Amino acid sequence: MTPYQEQCKIMESLSSSIFLRFTITFQLASSLLALTMVIVASYSLWTAQVARLFHVNVIIIFQVHWFGFFLHCSNRIVLHTIDLHNYLILDYCDMPASTTRCFVLRVQYVFGLCLVGATTIPLVIERYIATIKSSKYEQTGCALGIYMAIKQFSIATMTTYYAFLIFPFKEPFMPYCTAIKQGFVTNVEVIFHIILLAQIVGRVIFQYLFNLNERLRAKQITCSLSNRYSLEQNLKSMRTLKLFANLQTGFQVIHIMFFLFLLKFGAELESSTYLALLEWSGSYPLYAIISIVALLKKAQVNKVRLKKELEVHMSADQNNYFENFNKSWN
């Protein structure tokens, strides 16, 4: 069998797989929904009333995070639309994609998910500074947020470059657009392990900062209302960002477990099954949908909680005032 005939046979097997077709269709549908939600979330991040409870630096960092989802999902939509079109319309021998096209789309695809993974480190730095400067931080500008956004793009650029160092540019066509070869460890897996480690470390630091803010609030109960408001704002952000860290870490753990399975058993699987599982392991659009809904609900809950806690502090101020007033007359 000639290489050309073998290529045609491979495409016949892939395009005829019901599991792979279902997977691509699901990922396409979830990408379309996620893209819409990311656009709405990005707009709401600057205009919604609940977003006003966050410091502008947090908003900037999250805007880059949503942009990563936008870039990933938009390129995933193009990739999966082309795949489904080819599987349904073209002849088997005409289905393979050019390596150049795969690279152009995949590099944006990977850069987007690297931006998503690069959010944790800048947020840890921003929240640390917000904690040590809690009394004055709410009045600061957006310089730190811009710097953290540059850091996010820098991390994503470096990891994307490293991921594509061994991309098969010499091959004119690819049966399926992916930089991961069946049964082999590549730079992409190494990067995801690093991202996973960053999520775990970030989660631990978030917990430390949250506990620190709780202690600061307990110590400063007699401070001015404005200082306590700043502390409550920081605590509210930490509650939401703890959820974010949990979601990030949980998703990356599931992602890596899928990869470990594919690395161990990938060589024994059919190519169509392997590629379908590969797509399921990197369900970033589904993660985007879940994280947006969860963070929105958490932010709304924290908004109500912040209002109640400030009312308690204001009541405490009045009680302290009348207590001190009565003492002055006794």
TrEMBL record:
Short name of one Pfam family: 7TM_GPCR_Srab
Entries under InterPro entries matching the protein: 7TM_GPCR_serpentine_rcpt_Srab, Nematode_rcpt-like_srab
Compartments in which it is found: Membrane
Chain ranges passing through the membrane: 24-46, 53-71, 109-130, 142-164, 190-210, 243-262, 274-296
Keyword Membrane: yes
Keyword annotations from UniProtKB, A to Z: Membrane, Receptor, Transmembrane, Transmembrane helix
Membrane topology: Multi-pass membrane protein
One GO CC term on file: membrane
Protein name as annotated: Serpentine Receptor, class AB (Class A-like)
Protein species of origin: Caenorhabditis elegans
Gene: srab-7
